[in-house]
Amino acid sequence: MDNNRHSNEETAGHSNLVVCIGRQLGSGGRLVAKQLAKEFGCQLLDKEILNLAAKESGFSERFFEQNDEQKGFMKSLFHLHTPHVSDTNFYGSRFSQESLFLFQCDAIRKAAAEGPCVFVGRCADYVLRDHDKLVSVFITAHMEERLRRVMERDGCNEEEAQKIIHAKEGARSTYYNYYTGWRWGDSAHYDLCVNSSLLGIDGTARLISQFIRERFSL
User: CA 38, 104, 194, 201: dihedral to nearest 10 degrees?
Assistant: First the structure.
């Protein structure tokens, strides 16, 4: 009985928890986010946000995928077939890269309002900056470890992995800086910055978990 009561109280304490994870490519940030979501009973939202934004807006998810953490989406837009979008939306003034970002923001806010969430990227830390139970974290890692993860994931050599990291992080930081007015990876805008190479994925998740529990007395 006491165990059930404790469990219910803990669940209630997590009811509006939001954790936003920013991450360098290959740092293991999504793996850490996955562990935190499981521990705190949160919904994990990474690319899932794109699907939610597509449903909210009526646009094809493909448009959000093309725009995912990248500035300059409109340059490639017209290489896609227009039947993915209704004529009304396509020619309407609401159709722009900024509009897609706003739809994504709405999806992020709606998800956070419905229950505890762990968000990976997508400017969620900025979108939810006024949330009363927000923890924003940035995860880094040593370059050699990041390269190893990218090589394993993409089946490429070290030189190719370096190019992937440079290109994707350049796009990610440009997107973040443009839409938030903040600087991606700047410690001033995060509650906690962690190098996952020092403690490993499990240790990093435990450290962040302890930080969350101490901060909100969970």
Answer: 40
